[in-house]
Amino acid sequence: MSTRLWMAILAQEEAEPSSNVSLVLPETNELIAGIVAFLIVFFFVWKWAMPAINRTLEARQKAITGKLEDAERAKNEAENLRKDYEQQIADARSKGNDLIEEARKAAEAMKADMIARAQAEAEGIVSKAREEAAQEKSRAMGEARREVANLSIDLAERVVGKNLDREAQLGLVDQYIAELERG
Question: Ramachandran region of residue 161, left (φ > 0), alpha (ψ -120 to 50) or beta?
Answer without folding.
Answer: left
